[in-house]
Design goal:
alpha/beta; Arc Repressor Mutant, subunit A; D-Maltodextrin-Binding Protein, domain 2; LysR_HTH_N; transcription; WH_DNA-bd_sf; transcription regulation; DNA-binding transcriptional LysR family regulator
Amino acid sequence: MIVDLLKIFVTVIQKKGFTKAAEILHLSQPAVSLHIQNLENEFGMKLINRSSKQVEPTQAGHILYDRALKILDLYENAKQEIHLLQNTVSGSLKIGASYTIGEYILPNILAEFSFQYPQVDIEVMIDNTEEVANFVRLRQLDAGFVEGEIDSNEFVMESYLQDEMIFIAPPNHPLAFKKKIRMDDLHDQIWILRENGSGTRAYNNHVIDQYQLRVKKSYVFSSSQGVKEAVAAGLGIGCLSKWVVQKELKDNSLVRLKVGGVPFTREFSIILRKDPYITKATEIFLQRVMDSSP
């Protein structure tokens, strides 16, 4: 079926190689090469430039890649609409989420959705905001759930939840004994930060820059769990989503620093590509997310 050939072709282009594409598609590398050769024979033109390091689409390959993405979207939409004639929602749902959203908010929504629509195959990728946006851009995800703003005109972006950010410290930190803290009290502190590309890191950088805070030293961790553990161990202070630290605040392994002044909030957003091809499963799931927002 031509759709299968197009899926193979798109995967080879996106993964920039036959071997990686074969692993994802659960095919042998020679089989993938043969399918691409058959596709080239059908069009009568070379579609991919092969080298020892990676593959790149030719001019004809670029044209086919763009059209193939649309054809595959249309095919998936047709499948969904046909299944709806039987009052069923099936197909696949591929979503990406930043760590805070993916680990603390989406699981309950996904559990309810999968119970109601058991025929939908769900794949979830959890990574930092920058990577989630990149995978949506490459059409490897149907939708992304991210923290903060995405500096791109390539997406449709819709805010669905306001997130409260709080400053945290270990119970024995000098600032933990103050009833109220001014921003000036945060000068010359050791900060525990997330990695670049993280929405949490972007927010921390924004706060530090906005209030011109002097940072004595900083340590970088690639997960919020790492930040929490480092702060609890006494390495420094941090600023994380309230969703992330609820358990630790209850068991007093971390304390909230009561910083006065303006509230510290950011937006959780849904990002989609700027095209009309959204599967029914994705449409229903996104509506479920919006309905569940407080």
